Model the fold of this input.
Amino acid sequence: MQASVKQVVSQAAKKTLFADTHGTLLPSRFCEKDLLKVVDDQPPFTYIDDASSAAYPLMQKLRQSLVSHAMNNALDYESCNIFRMISVFEEHLKNELQTTVPMVREQFDNGITAVRNRITECRSYPLYNFVRSLGTRLLVGTETKSPGQDIELVYAAISEGKLASPLLECLAGWSGSPKSIAPCRIVT
Done:
């Protein structure tokens, strides 16, 4: 999802911040890298349910990056154009995000992703799979039922003794000694 948002931000920057209506190159063309860094630094769960919302950190930080870039070059007359282009950039970005993000989210929910789900490599995957097999949708963000209803499903399954098998699967091959926790590899 983050890669899709980065692509939309990059395209919006190229369309709106590189040149004005007369074809004159703008100093704002150099801020694309900063905008992409903002997307990289912002966790997707903070914006993915409504990426175009001005109240969410993504749009606020993108605007902050553009304003900061314009302020650093405020002595140039051409830098004033950056301030004029911020609203154009934001409007274009909002329109693109409103169409792209729901489509990518739907594909993700259907299991179609550009990056494979690495949860299957985790030692605790049998427990994750157990909880998902009960029909829970914890941390999905698109469900209308409360997390308490999902927890009730898990509690009922544990009460029925269904947890033993997945738990034993997690412990299979374990020597009894603690394993080090390897740092997470971030794939972009």
Observations:
- The CA atoms of residues 53 and 64 lie 15 Å apart.
- The first helix runs from residue 2 to 16.
- The helical segments are 2-16, 32-41, 57-72, 79-109, 125-133, 147-159, 164-171.
- The mean pLDDT is 81.
